[in-house]
Specification:
Blueprint: H1 2-24, E1 43-47, H2 53-62, E2 68-72, H3 80-84, H4 91-97, E3 98-101, H5 107-121, E4 125-131, H6 135-145, E5 150-156, H7 170-192
Helix pairs in contact: 5-6, 6-7
Length: 193
């Protein structure tokens, strides 16, 4: 019984240390698109979710950072006019060059949807927009499918981290812990394959 207890304590300590490193190495949010010249790429993709992901990607696109914008993982109940309501720029640009991906329901699905979009448009570079805590896993999934594509990460603030990059409270630790488990699963999957 003592050995089992020691093993459990050891595993918990290793997990906690790994989680602390994961959180400390999360990227800082990028400056707002109107505060710094955006990087240039063929395409811009945003993996939908909380925070300012979509509006940040739209601001980058409006400033000319890419030729087309893919909003990946849009809930099928959300309509194009719903998304257009978030667009503050030229309506013609939105109509011609913003694509909605309605198939993806997971980060793996986002990467698959993105891969098909990149191939269809013959793009070789992209700016990937997602929350800072989601970026490590999003990059792993995307690079696994598209190792020959140049990817520029554009992390946005999720609200789960304070100005020093630390979780704000218990629920934020819980969210980041869940993301860390998913990240480890993807790392294991890419290592094995």
């Amino acid at each position: 019984m003592r050995r089992l207890l020691f093993a459990l304590v050891f595993v918990a300590a290793v997990y906690a240390a790994g989680l602390a490193v994961f959180v400390s190495e999360l990227p800082r949010p990028s400056p707002a698109a109107d505060q710094a010249p955006p990087d240039q790429a063929d395409g811009i993709v945003v993996f939908t979710g909380g925070g300012d992901r979509i509006t940040s990607a739209m601001a980058l696109f409006e400033r000319g950072a890419g030729k087309r914008l893919l909003i990946s993982g849009v809930n099928p109940s959300v309509t194009r006019p719903d998304i257009a309501d978030l667009w503050a720029g030229d309506k013609d640009l939105f109509e011609c060059c913003v694509d909605l991906g309605l198939e993806a329901q997971t980060t793996q699905g986002n990467a698959t949807e993105l891969d098909a979009w990149m191939r269809a448009n013959k793009f070789r570079s992209l700016i990937l927009v997602t929350s800072e805590y989601h970026m490590p896993r999003a990059l792993l999934e995307t690079r696994e499918r598209m190792p020959d594509i140049a990817i520029t990460p554009y992390p946005v603030a999720s609200g789960h981290l304070d100005a020093r990059g630390r979780p704000r409270g218990f629920s934020d630790w819980r969210r980041l812990s869940g993301e860390y488990v998913k990240y480890l699963a993807v790392r294991l999957k890419t290592f094995v394959s």
